[in-house]
C-alpha cells in the first residue's frame, strides 16, 4: 500500500533525528484523542510524539506523527496493539514498516495513480511526451483559498512555492483537476462559513503609512472597524493606539519594537504592507502569539526598474544637468558621461530584486556579477563571485539589494569604498543601515566614486514634509551638496502597481488570519491551514491554540477537545512557538466559553482563539 503522505501532502522537512509514521483508521472515525492518549503511555519527558497533522473525511481519518528516532520501535509496537489502526509507510504492502518519509512531490503524476483512496481517478494525466507550450494547462489549479468572503487568489509565489497546493497539509480542497472534492469529503463542496471570534465583538484595525486603498477596502468590507492614517506615528502615540486594536497594518517606517508590542494586549496580527520586516520584532511578536505577514514579491519589479533608471541617470549625470537647466544654466558636456552598454554591474544580494535587476540590466548590454551569501542559480550570463571583495574590485556600478541584518550593517564602509574601481558608482535601494553615508560622502568628494543613488537612510521621516535636514541625519547638508548624487525619499516600491498588489495581498492574508486562523505566508509563525468550515457544518467550531513548543501539550489539548469529534487538526512549530488548529464538531454555543477557558488555563498557552 502506498504512503498516504504522498497524497495528503504532509510536510517532509523533518529533523534528522525525527521520523514519521502515518496511520489510517480502518473503521469509522476515531477520536483523535484516543491516539494521543496511546502516545502518552510512553515516558512523556523523553518521548514527545507530535501529531503533525490529521486529515480526514467521513470514513478515513489519517494521522501523521513525527517522533524521536530512538523510540521508533516502541512507538511502532504501540500502534500494532491498536486494532483500529493500520500503518501506512512508503513501500509497505502488508507489513508496515517505519521509514523516513520521502520528499513530497505533488507534481509527480504516479502519486495519483498509487493512491489507494482515490475513488475517482482523473481520466487524463499530462502526456509524457513533449506538448506544445500553448496546450499546457496548469495541473494545479491553485492553493486552497477558501476565505469566507471569497477573495481572489493572491499573486504571491509564497503560496505557489512554499505551500503545497490544493489546501495542503491536511486540508484538501479539490485543487487537482479530475479529483473531485466529493471523493474525499462531502463538506468540501459546501459554501464556506463566515466564522467569528467568540470573544471579540468588533475587529479593530489600525492602518498607518498610507496603505493602499485597495487593501483598506478589503478590510472594511469584512465589517472591521478600520482607522486609516497617512503617516507613521511617534512611539508614544503608537502605544496609545495599539492598545485597543486587533490588527495593525504598517509599511517600512513604523517600528514595532518589543516595548511597543508589549502594550498591544489585543493585537493578533501585523500586516507589513511591504517586503521588509526588519521594523518588527518578529520573535517577540511570535512569543506573544502575534502573527506577522508581508508581501514578499509585489514591489520587487518596481525597485528593479528604479535601479535601472538610476544607473543610466548616474552614467549620464542626468540629475545635475536637469538641476542646472532648472536654474537657467545650459551645460552641454560629454566628459565623464558614459553608455552603460558593456559596463559591469555588481549586484549585492541576488534575491527577488537583485535577480530581476540582473535580467533587465543584461538586456541593456551590461555584464552582471553578483555576490550573495547563498549559492544561487545565475540568470542569463550573470556570474556569482565568491566574495564581496571580488565584486567591489570588478564592477563599474554596484547596486545593493540585501535585507537589514546585523551582517549587512555598514556593509559598504570606507574600506569597501576604497576597494571599488576608481570612478565607479554606488546605488543603495535596500536599507539605510547598509552604507556608511559619511564614508560615501568622503569617497565622492575625493573623486573615488563618480556618483551614487540613495533611496534609503538610517533615519527617515514618519511622513511627507520638509524633514530631510541635518536634524534627521547630521550629514544631510553635505549629501545634498554633492555632485551626481540622486536622492529619493524611499520610493523604490512606490508605484501604483506595487502598492495596489501589496494592499490586496497583505489585506487578504490579514482577513484569512482573522477569520480562519490560516498562517500561510506568515513570516514568524509555522504555516498552518485547514480547509474552511462550511455552512453544512453549523455546529462546528475552529480552535486555534498558539502555545509554547514543549512536550506534552497536545495530549492535554486533546483531552480538552476530546469530548467532541475532532474533524481535522493540524499543528506545527517554529522555534519556541507552536500553532495548533482543530475543527471540532457538535459544539453548543454555550460550551464554547468553557472550551476556551480550559485551553487558556493550560500553562503552555500563548493565545487561544475560538472561531465559530
Ligand atoms: N527601497 C525600497 O523601497 C525597497 C527596499 N527593499 C529592500 O530590499 C531588500 C531586498 O529585497 P528582496 O530582493 O525582495 O529580498 P530577498 O530576500 O529576495 O533577497 C535578499 C538577498 O540578499 C541575500 N543576503 C542576505 N544577507 C546577505 C549578506 N550579508 N551578504 C550578501 N547577500 C545577502 C539573501 O541571501 C538574498 O538572496 C529588502 O530586504 C528590503 O530591505 C525592498 C523593497 C522596496
Ligand atoms: O518593501 C519594502 O521593504 C520597502 O522598503 C518599501 O517600503 P514602503 O512600503 O515604501 O515603506
Automatic annotation (TrEMBL):
Its EC number is 1.1.1.399, 1.1.1.95. CDD domains: ACT_3PGDH (cd04901), PGDH_3 (cd12176). Residues 542-612 form the ACT domain. Pathway: Amino-acid biosynthesis; L-serine biosynthesis; L-serine from 3-phospho-D-glycerate: step 1/3. It is an enzyme of class 1 (oxidoreductase). It catalyses: (R)-2-hydroxyglutarate + NAD(+) = 2-oxoglutarate + NADH + H(+); (2R)-3-phosphoglycerate + NAD(+) = 3-phosphooxypyruvate + NADH + H(+). GO terms for biological process: L-serine biosynthetic process. Keywords: Amino-acid biosynthesis, NAD, Oxidoreductase, Phosphoprotein, Serine biosynthesis. GO terms for molecular function: 2-oxoglutarate reductase activity; NAD binding; phosphoglycerate dehydrogenase activity. InterPro entries: ACT-like_dom_sf, ACT_dom, D-2-hydroxyacid_DH, D-isomer_2_OHA_DH_cat_dom, D-isomer_DH_CS, D-isomer_DH_CS1, D-isomer_DH_NAD-bd, NAD(P)-bd_dom_sf. Belongs to the D-isomer specific 2-hydroxyacid dehydrogenase family. Catalyzes the reversible oxidation of 3-phospho-D-glycerate to 3-phosphonooxypyruvate, the first step of the phosphorylated L-serine biosynthesis pathway. Also catalyzes the reversible oxidation of 2-hydroxyglutarate to 2-oxoglutarate. This is 2-oxoglutarate reductase. It comes from Lepidopterella palustris CBS 459.81.
Amino acid at each position: 500500500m502506498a504512503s498516504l503522505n504522498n497524497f495528503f501532502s504532509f510536510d517532509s522537512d523533518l529533523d534528522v533525528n525525527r521520523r514519521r509514521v502515518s496511520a489510517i483508521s480502518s473503521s469509522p472515525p476515531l477520536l483523535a484523542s484516543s491516539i494521543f492518549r496511546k502516545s502518552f503511555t510512553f515516558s512523556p519527558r523523553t518521548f514527545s510524539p507530535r501529531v503533525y497533522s490529521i486529515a480526514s473525511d467521513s470514513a478515513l481519518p489519517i494521522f501523521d506523527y513525527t517522533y524521536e528516532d530512538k523510540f521508533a520501535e516502541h512507538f511502532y509496537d504501540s500502534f500494532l496493539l491498536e486494532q483500529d489502526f493500520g500503518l501506512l509507510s512508503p513501500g509497505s504492502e502488508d507489513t508496515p514498516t517505519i521509514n523516513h518519509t520521502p520528499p513530497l512531490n505533488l507534481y509527480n503524476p504516479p502519486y495519483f495513480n498509487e493512491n489507494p483512496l482515490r475513488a475517482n481517478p482523473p481520466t487524463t494525466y499530462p502526456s509524457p511526451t513533449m506538448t506544445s507550450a500553448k496546450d499546457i494547462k496548469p495541473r494545479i489549479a491553485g492553493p486552497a483559498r477558501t476565505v469566507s468572503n471569497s477573495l481572489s487568489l493572491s499573486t504571491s509565489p509564497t503560496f505557489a512555492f512554499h505551500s503545497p497546493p490544493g489546501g495542503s497539509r491536511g486540508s484538501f480542497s479539490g485543487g487537482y483537476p479530475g479529483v473531485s472534492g466529493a471523493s474525499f469529503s462531502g463538506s468540501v463542496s459546501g459554501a464556506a462559513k463566515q466564522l467569528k471570534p467568540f470573544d471579540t465583538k468588533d475587529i479593530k484595525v489600525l492602518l498607518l503609512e498610507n496603505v493602499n486603498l485597495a487593501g483598506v477596502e478589503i478590510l472594511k468590507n469584512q465589517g472591521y472597524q478600520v482607522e486609516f492614517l497617512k503617516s507613521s506615528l511617534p512611539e508614544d502615540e503608537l502605544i496609545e493606539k495599539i492598545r485597543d486594536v486587533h490588527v495593525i497594518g504598517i509599511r517600512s517606517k513604523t517600528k514595532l519594537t518589543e516595548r511597543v508590542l508589549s502594550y498591544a494586549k489585543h493585537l493578533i496580527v501585523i500586516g507589513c504592507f511591504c517586503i521588509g520586516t526588519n521594523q518588527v520584532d518578529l520573535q517577540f511578536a511570535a512569543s506573544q502569539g502575534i502573527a506577522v505577514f508581508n508581501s514578499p514579491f509585489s514591489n520587487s519589479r518596481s525597485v528593479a526598474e528604479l535601479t535601472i533608471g538610476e544607473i543610466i541617470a548616474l552614467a549620464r549625470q542626468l540629475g545635475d544637468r536637469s538641476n542646472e537647466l532648472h536654474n537657467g544654466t545650459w551645460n552641454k558636456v560629454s566628459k565623464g558621461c558614459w553608455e552603460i552598454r558593456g559596463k559591469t554591474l555588481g549586484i549585492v544580494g541576488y534575491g527577488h530584486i537583485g535577480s530581476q535587476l540582473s535580467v533587465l540590466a543584461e538586456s541593456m548590454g551590461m555584464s552582471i556579477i553578483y555576490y550573495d551569501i547563498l549559492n544561487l542559480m545565475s540568470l542569463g550570463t550573470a556570474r556569482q563571485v565568491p566574495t564581496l571583495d571580488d565584486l567591489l574590485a570588478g564592477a563599474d556600478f554596484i547596486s545593493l539589494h540585501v535585507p537589514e541584518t546585523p551582517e549587512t550593517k555598514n556593509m559598504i564602509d570606507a574600506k569597501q569604498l576604497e576597494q571599488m574601481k576608481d570612478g565607479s558608482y554606488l546605488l543603495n535601494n535596500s536599507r539605510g543601515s547598509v552604507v556608511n553615508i559619511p564614508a560615501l560622502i568622503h569617497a565622492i568628494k575625493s573623486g573615488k566614486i563618480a556618483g551614487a543613488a540613495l533611496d534609503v537612510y538610517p533615519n527617515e521621516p514618519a511622513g511627507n514634509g520638509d524633514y530631510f535636514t541635518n536634524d534627521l541625519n547630521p550629514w544631510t547638508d553635505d549629501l545634498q551638496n554633492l555632485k551626481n548624487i540622486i536622492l529619493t525619499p524611499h520610493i523604490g516600491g512606490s508605484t501604483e502597481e506595487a502598492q495596489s498588489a501589496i494592499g490586496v495581498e497583505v489585506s487578504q492574508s490579514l482577513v484569512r488570519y482573522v477569520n480562519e486562523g490560516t498562517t500561510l505566508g506568515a513570516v514568524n509563525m509555522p504555516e498552518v491551514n485547514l480547509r474552511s468550515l462550511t455552512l453544512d457544518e453549523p455546529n462546528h467550531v475552529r480552535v486555534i491554540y498558539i502555545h509554547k513548543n514543549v512536550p506534552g501539550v497536545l495530549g492535554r489539548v486533546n483531552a480538552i477537545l476530546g469530548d467532541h469529534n475532532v474533524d481535522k487538526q493540524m499543528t506545527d512549530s517554529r522555534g519556541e512557538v507552536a500553532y495548533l488548529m482543530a475543527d471540532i464538531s457538535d459544539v453548543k454555543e454555550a460550551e464554547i466559553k468553557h472550551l476556551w477557558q480550559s485551553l487558556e488555563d493550560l500553562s503552555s498557552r500563548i493565545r487561544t482563539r475560538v472561531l465559530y
